[in-house]
Amino acid sequence: MPNPPGHSAATACHICGHLDVEPLEQKGKPFRLVSSDVQPVPGTAEFSICPRCLTVQKTITPTWQAMADRIYASYDINHQSQGAEPTIFDSAKGSGPRSLILLRNFLDMVDLAREGRLLDFGCSNGNLLKSFHGLRPDWKLSGAELFDQWKDTVLALPGVEAFYSGANAAYAEKFDVISLSHVLEHIPDPISFLKEISGHLTPRGRILLAMPNLRQNPSDLIIADHCSHFDENSLSYVTHAAGLHTELFSTEMLPKELVAVLSVGGPSAGPPLAAGDGGKASRERCLFYFKLLDEVREAAKSCREEGQPLGIMGSSIAALWTMMELDSKVDFFVDEDRNRVGHQLLSLPIVDPSRVPEGALVFIPMSVVVAERIIQRWKGHAIDFRYVPTNRPG
Question: pTM for the whole thing?
Answer without folding.
Answer: 0.93
